[in-house]
Prior knowledge:
By secondary structure, this protein is mainly β. It has one domain (1-200). The chain has strands spanning 13-17, 28-31, 45-48, 54-56, 67-76, 80-84, 97-101, 106-113, 122-123, 130-131, 133-134, 148-150, 161-166, 178-179, 181-186. The strands form 3 sheets. Strands 1, 8, 10, 11, 12, 13 and 15 form a 7-stranded mixed sheet that branches. Strands 2, 3, 4, 5, 6 and 7 form a 6-stranded antiparallel sheet that branches. The chain starts with 12 loop residues before the first strand and ends in a 19-residue tail after the last strand. The model has no long low-confidence stretch (mean pLDDT 93).
Amino acid sequence: xxxxxxxxxxxLLPINLIGGQVFAGATRQIPIASNSATAIFYGDVVxxxxxxLLVQDTGTDAATPVGVLLGCSYTDPTYGKxxxxxxxxxxxxxxxxxxxxxDPDQLFKVAVVSGTTVVTYVNRTSVGNNALLVQNVGxxxxxxxxxxxxxxxxxxxxxxxxxxDVIPDTAIAGNPGSYTEVIVKWNVPTTGAVGGHQYTQAxxx
Length: 205
């Protein structure tokens, strides 16, 4: 069966860990504040606030992620214990818990865009470079994220994302060496700067 065409960004989706280790679906449960207004979608980048609670990370060049959201649960006053693909925002409950892929060694697949949601490509030469996040609002219909990475990559050491490989099945016909999806990891923050996984930031949250 042919690889599906990538027509829109879909967030950061865990695939495995550095070194080919298997991602077994393990997540950490991190609370979200009651009535937190911002919706957070499946595959959105998230971070710990200094309250110890989870919030969306809207950073692009200097994001400080703890991971990505993979759903949530809370007690709905009408339906009782509820599990959702995404956090819809403004939920009045004292037990909101997000399921977060928080491993600093996590690898993700992600779509490449030219800006906002227009899918484009990078060349194989981008492997090893760093990238900017593109923060788009997810879908309340599917619950999925629309976060992507920008096609313009660089060696800038404060960027939060490192491209470690391309996804060969997304090679563009007639344009050898060009790919619409890549595999990425979180960077380690540089000394005295932001931009990288929170667990590896020596100064804390």
